[in-house]
Amino acid sequence: MSELELIVQQLEQGDLSLDQSLQQFERGITLARQSQQLLQAAEQKVQVLMQQQQQESLLPFDAPAGE
């Protein structure tokens, strides 16, 4: 994220050449996609954990151990 923020700052300043701007833009798109993938993976993990918690809470409280 910090690299993506730096790229945005550089592009906003407008001090880069056109070629450098395009390279930084491409790098920014790559980083944004990677961040999105990481976010989706984290959301999936949270959903799995929440489903597991819901399944555990559905077990009868007075069920004998081992049954």
Automatic annotation (TrEMBL):
Location(s) in or outside the cell: Cytoplasm
GO biological-process terms attached to the record: DNA catabolic process
Record carries keyword Membrane: no
Gene Ontology terms for molecular function: exodeoxyribonuclease VII activity
UniProt cross-references to InterPro entries, sorted A to Z: Exonuc_VII_S, Exonuc_VII_ssu_sf
Pfam families per the UniProt record, alphabetical: Exonuc_VII_S
Record's catalysed reaction(s): Exonucleolytic cleavage in either 5'- to 3'- or 3'- to 5'-direction to yield nucleoside 5'-phosphates
Family note: Belongs to the XseB family.
Assembly behavior: Heterooligomer composed of large and small subunits.
Protein name from the UniProt record: Exodeoxyribonuclease 7 small subunit
Gene responsible for this protein: xseB
